[in-house]
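User: Can you predict the 3D structure for this chain?
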Amino acid sequence: MSLKAPKKILILRFSSIGDIVLTFPVVRSLKVAYPECQIDFVTKKAYLSLLNACQGINEVFVLDNSLRTLKKQIDFQSYDAVLDLHHNLRTQLLTFFTGAKVYRFPKNNWQKWLLTRFKMKPKCRLHVVERYLQTLQTAFGIEIMAPEAHYHVPVQDQFLIADQIGISPKAYIAVAIGAQFATKRLPADMLIELIKKVKAPVVLLGGKEDVVVAQQIKGALPQQQIVSMAGQLSIHASAWVVKNAAALLTHDTGLMHIGAAFEVPIHLIWGNTTRDLGMYPLRPEQDKCFHYEVADLSCRPCSKIGHQNCPKGHFACMRHQDLNHIAQQLNLTEY
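Assistant: Here is the predicted structure, written as structure tokens:
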């Protein structure tokens, strides 16, 4: 079914940081195609402030434990289309018996299962945003090619970099030390060894859960210029630090997807996940993206998200990373 000039569209995406950030190009594409259209959004309470970085959203509905309460707040039939960009049981229950015209993006779970279980790669690698945009084509008959990442740092989260972290803009490397799952993170001892090889000043970024590792890094490398902002900044302020960095060293995590929206070169260390899962930096032809992974491991990818411990016990996808090569590439960064 093709809809012409919709007046109201509702987008569903409950979590998490990276996945929500990857809906921003969808909002942008809709506003370009339909400038007068009202675009509303549904997400979890924990991610409400994240949407401040997406221009073009009119109203946000928040899931705060009760799906029933949320359902009563939304007049589904007033929307020309509901775009389910989460496509799980909760979003299906939310839209069930509402009379809404719902379009759900293809999750390709069977392809992910074949990839993680039998290492059968998809015939065509599609970024998740490309699959989001397939939903627009199904709903409205519009086709959008070569999507670009989008992230607008709110003005209140912008600050003078030199004043707050003591290093001039574009004179440091931002290092996102965290990730939700341990199998996506370089172990602390290896991260210390890698940063030891980096010539430029380093700014450590992460949440409160990353403070201990940040302290370990600073304690182990007292002679280097290392500033830890872990646990001190909002996600938007962290994005601002990334935007003003000379380069970003990161794992497969939310801050990587945010960094893709800026001009900063991205140095991405892959652990248990791979690009075949469709969650790599959203950039045309992977411009200024450097990927580091241990090739020819029969156990990768072992999960579409990650584990807190290596299922095989060896953690070769991180333990066998070539730290010298990564450091050499980082040290080629122009300042």
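The first strand starts at residue 8 and ends at 12. The chain has two domains: 8-140, 156-330.
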